[in-house]
Amino acid sequence: MELTRSEMEIMDVMWETGTPMSRADLLARSEEKTWKDSSVHILLNGLLQKGAIQEAGLVKRSKTYGRVFTPTLTREEYFAATIFCHRHKPEIVGLFAALLRREDITPEDLDKIQELVRQRKA
To answer: What are the structural domains, with CATH classification, of the chain?
Structure first.
């Protein structure tokens, strides 16, 4: 699944908020958007079709009800999936080695990664 720039902007808002959001919520919280307010419905439908979001219920707004949406995957799950959906897939050990060479990885991050590897082996 590959998302467009506008779809990524919506997903970023949803990931950062962490709660189900309505169309109105998205419009209110999307500060640096490249899309028009009138196209949010089209973007949400595209995200639904791609399986990036799902309906999470209804919310009452004045006299009407509106759908609320929530992501079906985390930001990290999305980026991990996009790495391996291209024709030129990286070799997994080489990818991990490249990630571990990053300067912004802390000793705490390394401890967490080590624990995840230990759990995966078990």
So the answer is: 5-71 (1.10.10.10), 75-121 (no CATH)
